[in-house]
Amino acid sequence: MSAKQPGAIRRYSLPIALVLAGLVTLFAYRHWSASDAAGPETAGYAGRGGGGAGKGRPVPVVAQPVRRGDIEIHLDGIGTVIPRNTVTVRSRVDGQLMRVLFREGQTVRAGDALAEIDTRPFEVQLLQAQGALARDQALLDNARVDLERYHTLYEQDSGSRQQWDTQKALVEQYQGAIKSDQAQIESAKLQLTYCHIKAPISGRTGLRLVDAGNIVHASDSTGLVVITQLHPVTVVFTLPEDRLPAVRRRLAAGGTISVDAYDRGRQNRLASGVLLTVDNQIDDTTGTIRLKAEFPNEDDSLFPNQFVNADLLVDTLHDVLVLPVAAIQRGVQGTFVYVVGPEQKVAVRPVTLGAAQGDTVSVETGVEAGEQVVVDGADKLRDGASVELGTRAAKAGVPDAGADSGQDAASGQRHRPAQ
User: Fold this and answer.
1) CATH number of the domain where residue 74 is located
2) Which of 52, 244, 332, 347 has the least CB density, counted as fewest CB within 10 Å?
3) Whole-structure pTM value
């Protein structure tokens, strides 16, 4: 009996496998039939260009019209705030620093007193020079009297010509000594002037580098204080070399180029100014060109060595077709948009893009003004799909905020950051 068991197992295994395969096929057929009968809401969307999007219930989307407007062409660069002038105030004479007349961080004007150095050594030098001048002046007066006397004796043949010539040379010698004494006096007066240190430029003082009572020298490298000019101030930033032609064309046309300085996160505009100049060569290691812009900086919003983002306005395109960036789709065929037709069906429309500004982009070809393009919900569409128009707020299930949402319902252009 045991010898016949393997044959019995082989005899019944094939029918059992056929029965199981039939049951699985019947179950799958019934499941697929139920899914097809349920429609897209049960079977799900196949994504962009997927099956089922054009059948059954319309797809809820948000659309906005293509409009005409202006597009500003901006160039962005990373820059640093550089003072228009920076001066390290140093002593021009050696001596003891008697008084410091400025406060750290004070705004000073050119000519304001900053410090005083002990003047007594230079007053003594002035007195010495004045005494030497008086002495040499007396010697000159006496030599001139003797010169007249020797001249009279020479004309009366009572004196020699040599004696007269010698006296004449002595007079000229004293005249030279007097000029030297006068120079010494002027030098002593100049040293006294240098003892009163004044601001060479208008600007903001930094931290005090030397305290009163110390001995300072003209050869000191640290100086007394650093003054930076903040009104106006400049920003030096870089742009890629391929952006240079646009800047040069604008400068060659004679127009001024406005520059805005934004903070590190590009959220707040700090100041507005104009482009001053472009560097005379491109950095071959980075492929960038340096530019310098000037800002009035009346509110001190820019600070020396501050990192900023420079926004350069090089041109403005007027009366061009614009639409939201959110409407632009990209695929194997290139860039395209979904245009809503009169029967609430969408059509794929290839477009050629132009310049962009924020959340808005210009379109050169592909659409016309007034046509509705899908800006939200395009991921579930395909060519010819039926749609149901709504708003972003309704699509999200919340009340429509309208103007409070910070977005223009007519243009779809988001407002720029707070300025």
Assistant:
1) 2.40.30.170
2) 332
3) 0.63
Tens of pLDDT along 81-92? 999 999 999 999
Residue 290 contacts residue 235 (beta carbons within 8 Å): no
Domain extent, residue 119, equals: 93-228
The number of CA neighbours under 13 Å toward the Cβ of 3 is 0
- Judge whether residue 58 has pLDDT over 70: yes
| Residue 223 and residue 237 in one domain | no
Total of domains in the chain: 3
Identify whether 31 is part of a domain: no
Q: Are 302 and 273 in contact (CB under 8 A)?
A: no
How far apart CA 368 and CA 359 sit, in angstroms, is: 19
Identify whether residues 209 and 106 lie together within a single domain.
yes
Task: Tell whether 221 and 243 lie within a shared domain.
Answer: no
* pLDDT tens-digit readout, 146-159: 888 888 887 887 77
Residue 233: helix, strand or coil by DSSP? strand
**Contacts (Cβ under 8 Å, ≥6 apart) of 228:** 83, 85, 86, 203, 204, 206, 304
What's the token pair of residue 182? 């006068």
DSSP code per residue over 247-291: HHHHHHTT---EEEEE-TTS-SEEEEEEEEEEEEEEETTTTEEEE
* pLDDT tops 50 at residue 295: yes
Encode 62-99: b = buried (16+ Cβ within 10 Å), e = exposed: bbbebbebebebbbebebebbbbeebebbbebebebee
**HSE on the CB side for 355, CA within 13 Å?**
16
In contact, 381 and 336? CB cutoff 8 Å: no
Confidence tier at 212 by pLDDT (50, 70, 90): very high
Which range has the worst mean pLDDT, 116-125, 298-307, 355-364? 355-364
